[in-house]
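Exercise 7.
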Amino acid sequence: MATAAQISANQQNAQFSTGPRTEAGKQTVSRNSFVHGLAAKHFFLHEEDKLLFEQLRESLVDHYKPATAHERALLDELAEARWRCRTARIMENSFFDTLITEQRKADSSLTVERALARMFIDETQQKRLRLMMRYLNAAERSAEKARNELERIIAIRREHERAQARFQAYLATCATRGPQPPAVPETEDRVCSVHPQKR
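Solution. The predicted structure, written as tokens, is:
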């Protein structure tokens, strides 16, 4: 348990690490995760990628055909998650290409396989790879979660529509036939009343 002196010292030290105080500093920190966009809370898209992203979104619209505002919002989440997956995979490929180039520049006798193998004995490269794989896995989980939720909501809506269609068809049938007398069950008593048995 912390002593009173330790608590007081911690409180005093905390005053020196309160983060950026100026507006410029706060804006800079808020863009830290925008370096690659994979960890950003808000979706970040370069101007040159907007057309490709819109094509991705339109392909999802054609596939899922969202019919409500909620479905469209879920589809947007899925499109953003899919785009983050795409970004992460491109970065992964670039990471390996850069690693191989650096290793072979230092030692031209290295094959591609040997250059990659060195990554597993280089602690710095391993840390970079783990960070890359963490972003990639997070993006894939996010995309899978968004896809499952969108498909679940669409399935519920379509089942409701089918139930409504069946009910409307039933009402139309009733209107065509008119009111029908209730069916009389074929009981043993009814049979006996029509064909009395000799005792």
